[in-house]
Design goal:
Elements (H helix, E strand, L loop, with lengths): L2 H13 L1 H15 L3 E4 L6 H6 L3 E4 L8 H5 L9 H11 L4 H5 L2 E5 L3 H10 L5 E4 L7 H23 L5 H24 L9 H11 L5 H20 L13 E6 L10 H6 L3 E6 L4 H4 L10 H9 L11 H13 L4 E7 L3 H16 L4 E6 L6 H19 L2
Parallel strand pairs: 1-2, 1-3, 3-4, 5-6, 5-7, 7-8
The structure holds iron/sulfur cluster (SF4) (2 copies).
Length: 394
């Protein structure tokens, strides 16, 4: 097999990970293994995996039938991610929720918090209460005690003991997994980039569904090697003398709007070189302290730094955003927010201000999972990219 074919076959495996994971979960459930479903980067997967459990993501990214079904019980003016997640569980169209022995929620935004109260009537749940202030002095104590409560709840419910040793091992494993993603983002620093933003997104999404952790590590390592090797040989996604405009994408709920946003940006000739947000570079390059003698403290310390708009005030996120613009030599920023997501929508304004200070073109796209606005979104993205191309070509 040539390097190109091997790279493609790994990318195909990442792309198909979600589909394959439902069969994996079915098998795990039949063997009596515990499957835990969660929704968010704030659910500490280290604690779940230290118990020997599988952790799958339950966020809904589809419109039909999940959203219309959810709207029979939830207000229509909620964000589509919340409606889709709830609707898929209500309609039993999410195999991961079906095989989950427990669902972990976290009180990020109000809509999710209230949706979880309804979800408790459909599935066994544990809700982790998240502080709103990302400042360690003000929030760390309560946050750490929430994580202890979560660990104890898992121990009690499933009759297991989660030791410090197990936690330290999973911290190492998860640090390694995040470091693969951080290295992948580094490939976006090259000009032209050694991976496309669409490829990066496929890998980021697949990460949650590759449940065989050894296979995931081997494939991630090899994918990074091959991407760089192909780039060196001039066989990357762009020709060596091609220099597409470089876009930083920021936002949440992106996986539900890939076709009309992320895919369109690259179809129109721009390159997404990095993502900002909870799946973005700053979360991936921030490891958990492996030398902290108290692993729960170390986990709490890292998770309080997840760059998400639900925190306030969010100075750390803005500082990190400034740094990424510079490090990735970005030509323009596209902030994508979904309807009714107040935290990200409002913080988009602060991102725009930072861009203005740095003479950086900025576009805010508000969209939804529902069909109908594809043309309008495409036109706005197209005009923005044309403007960036004209600017770049002098
Ligand atoms: S954007 Fe925020 S609320 Fe949404 S999954 Fe990421 S961390 Fe959680
Ligand atoms: S996209 Fe926004 S409103 Fe929706 S769950 Fe995430 S933070 Fe909450």
């Amino acid at each position: 097999m040539s390097n190109e074919e091997e790279f493609q076959s790994i990318m195909d495996e990442f792309r198909d990970a979600k589909k394959n994971a439902s069969l994996f979960c079915k098998g795990a459930s039949e063997r009596g293994d515990v499957v835990i479903g969660s929704f968010c980067q704030y659910a500490p997967t280290e604690i779940i995996r230290a118990a020997g459990f599988y952790n799958v993501i339950l966020c809904g990214f589809n419109y039909d039938p999940a959203v219309p079904l959810a709207e029979t019980e939830l207000p229509a003016n909620l964000c589509p991610l919340i409606k889709s997640s709830y609707g898929n569980i209500l309609g039993k169209t999410c195999p991961f929720a079906f095989y989950s022995d427990l669902i972990v929620g976290e009180t990020t935004c109000d809509g999710k918090k209230k949706m979880y109260e309804m979800l408790q009537e459909l599935k066994q749940m544990h809700v982790i209460h998240l502080p709103n202030v990302p400042d360690k002095e003000r929030s760390m104590e309560g946050w750490e005690s929430e994580l202890h409560r979560f660990k104890e709840a898992l121990e009690e419910r499933f009759n297991v003991k989660i030791t410090d040793e197990q936690l330290k091992n999973t911290i190492k494993t998860l640090n390694k997994e995040r470091s693969y993603n951080a290295r992948m983002y580094e490939l976006g620093k090259l000009d032209p980039p050694a991976m496309t933003g669409v490829q990066m997104r496929n890998v980021l999404t697949a990460e949650y569904f590759m449940l065989d952790e050894k296979n995931k590590a081997v494939k991630s390592e090899r994918m990074l090697e091959l991407a760089k090797q192909l780039w060196d040989e001039g066989k990357g996604p762009y020709k060596k003398d091609e220099h597409p405009v470089r876009i930083l994408v920021s936002g949440a709920g992106l996986d539900g709007v890939l076709d009309k946003t992320i895919n369109v940006i690259e179809e129109l000739g721009a390159a997404i070189v990095c993502y900002e947000g909870c799946c973005g570079i700053m979360n991936m390059r921030r490891p958990i302290d492996e030398n902290d003698p108290d692993p729960i403290h170390a986990i709490a310390d890292k998770y309080l730094e997840v760059p998400c708009a639900v925190m306030s005030p969010n100075a750390r996120r803005f500082e990190q955003f400034r740094n990424v613009l510079d490090e990735w030599k970005v030509d323009g920023v596209i902030s994508i927010t979904v309807h009714a997501c107040s935290p990200f929508d409002i913080e988009s304004r602060a991102l725009e201000d930072i861009c203005n200070e740095n003479d950086m073109p900025f576009l805010h796209v508000r969209t939804d999972y529902s069909p109908g606005d594809e043309g309008q979104v495409r036109t706005r993205i197209e005009a923005f990219i044309e403007m960036l191309q004209a600017k770049k070509n002098g």
